[in-house]
């Protein structure tokens, strides 16, 4: 103990820390740093509550699986993609301390996915999932290490993509009529998605309190079961035409909390399950088109009416790329949005 600190702390400090020598070393390092800061001044010493310091500090585990669990709990995202990526990577490189993974481990992961026939867009998503977990780990553990997944190249990336198709007006009307007469809650997603331009998770994860049938509005906002993709995704949209009819029928089959309670499990929105169920029908009856094609179709329908681009972005919750100026102000009013969505809907209803 430094002589100038003896009056505050006594001749020495002894603290039982841990039977594990590695854990004990971490505790000792933490306590030493705190004490060094306390007695760095030789004239005025602020005493440290040693017991509280020890009780509040716990050495961090460095295993990839454990740090990944912590990351997923904090992020509250759809856990399926990162868990799939994590499971595959661990099967190839092992569940080790995060500091031990190398560039060769990352390259092995990419080669494995390509050999299994994954498209390059899927490979990139898996890379991004693991990269995010490792970035979090390095930050939390204060590790000065380059992420092995950073700027990782994929041979032929993008060359295996295809342009997503869109629905014709005839297909939309046929699908909407089938949805309303089917008695299937899942099929009602088609007009809800097709006439709002929303992402599937945005509709499947709606709370009843997000829906205002008196004003025919839905409020797309984050909640405990699902987050939104971008800050621009928070928005209010009017329900017009087929969307209004579908919403009225869907609410009749909902519970008091969620619009689609069957897809809210353990406090998480299982949008992927809803997507699989809906796409099974859409692909069969509409030449391979999917739920996400409805979103592309809405953008084309708004373009055809010469709707302003920044209004299109506001309706779909797309990230605006038209410059800083388009983000100024409050944006378009709900009534202005209603006019344009009404015009789009009228084109279908008049068929």
From TrEMBL:
<protein>
    <submittedName>
        <fullName>Tyrosine-type recombinase/integrase</fullName>
    </submittedName>
</protein>
<dbReference type="Pfam" id="PF00589">
    <property type="entry name" value="Phage_integrase"/>
</dbReference>
<comment type="similarity">
    <text>Belongs to the 'phage' integrase family.</text>
</comment>
<dbReference type="InterPro" id="IPR002104">
    <property type="entry name" value="Integrase_catalytic"/>
</dbReference>
<keyword id="KW-0238">DNA-binding</keyword>
<dbReference type="InterPro" id="IPR010998">
    <property type="entry name" value="Integrase_recombinase_N"/>
</dbReference>
<keyword id="KW-0229">DNA integration</keyword>
<dbReference type="InterPro" id="IPR050808">
    <property type="entry name" value="Phage_Integrase"/>
</dbReference>
<dbReference type="InterPro" id="IPR013762">
    <property type="entry name" value="Integrase-like_cat_sf"/>
</dbReference>
<feature type="domain" description="Tyr recombinase">
    <location>
        <begin position="162"/>
        <end position="341"/>
    </location>
</feature>
<dbReference type="InterPro" id="IPR011010">
    <property type="entry name" value="DNA_brk_join_enz"/>
</dbReference>
<keyword id="KW-0233">DNA recombination</keyword>
